[in-house]
Write a structure and sequence with these properties.
126 residues, Arc Repressor Mutant, subunit A, 7 helices
């Protein structure tokens, strides 16, 4: 995650804008994007300040590890998509959480298909 611009820089940019300096010149002078200037101006108009927004380090999880483990124990043959649908999340989230918990989700039928294809090539009628 990138760091926010300093408060001093923000105030200098807005001060120059208020003095009538065009946004293009401010952009070149302070080496920032014009859209950043516009965003700061919108923020000042909406909130009255140009302080950086507080960044949240961790999002709240939609389900706990215990809930996931209980579901996996109740439905051991459930696919990632089925588990994801149950918890209303993406299957990649389920996969990442299972990997973090050290649970592998290997299904026999995947191995069986591979084995069957090997046997089919070996069992030639000729």
């Amino acid at each position: 995650m990138s760091k926010a611009y300093s408060q001093d820089l923000r105030e200098s940019v807005i001060l120059n804008y208020d003095r009538g300096v065009p946004k293009g010149i401010i952009s070149e002078l302070f080496n920032i994007c014009i859209e950043t200037i516009n965003r700061w101006l919108r923020q000042r108009k909406k909130t009255g300040n140009i302080k950086p927004k507080v960044k949240i380090k961790h999002r709240q999880r939609k389900f706990s590890d215990e809930d996931l483990l209980n579901y996996v124990h109740l439905y051991p043959s459930a696919t990632l998509e089925e588990i994801a649908q149950h918890f209303s999340v993406k299957s990649t989230s389920i996969h990442a959480r299972l990997k973090k918990l050290g649970i592998t989700r290997k299904k026999k039928h995947f191995f069986m298909r591979k084995e069957m294809s090997k046997h089919e090539t070996n069992l030639s009628p000729y």
